[in-house]
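ESCALATION

Customer reports they have been waiting on this structure for their group meeting. Please prioritize. Original submission:
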Amino acid sequence: MNTVLEHRTWRYATKKFDATKKVSDQDLETLMEAARLSASSYGLQPYHFFVISDPEIREQLKPASWGQSQITDASHIIVFANATDFGEELVDDYVSNVSETRSIPAEGLKGYADFMKSKLMELPTEHKSNWTARQAYIAFGNLMQAAAELKIDTCPMEGFESEKYNEILGLNDKNLNAAVVLAVGYRSEEDDTQHYAKVRKSTEELFTLI
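Update from on-call: job pushed to the front of the queue and completed.
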């Protein structure tokens, strides 16, 4: 089995973490960089990540996560928060970054900026929020796979009350919404889930070659 598939076979949604094991600062920086380097539509990255290790904050978040132990037992939890709305500043900030990073005069990027604005600015607020959440999920998947390559366990979590997360983390004031949560750490030897066979649809069911 090649390493790409080996990593994907090894990872599973860890249900019980070993609370005594912590992800190193170096590995955590690698995971953060993997998320930062993730693809996003137009490269706009309309999201923000909250990496939470503070035990008091996590105790507050646990009831809003249906009491799931991963919230307090994992080494860290990462909240992927999408922008709930945006204006032209999203594009303008990106174009400024492109200009500086690639040493391109800003006026040479005006056509591309206008194109992005024409596609995004007229969207209803609800559609904007749905679009930014999808972008956050791309980064979410990339970080989860990077963790598997480092043999760091994860549990993707949608079982939480985003409104309460937003309140506890002060996201409403930041124009952000908790879209999805990733618990990161190391599996407990007592987690029976690690021994279960991976259940997926067959290649024939899932793919159509045209």
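Sent to customer with the following note: The two ends are 26 Å apart (CA to CA).
Escalation resolved.
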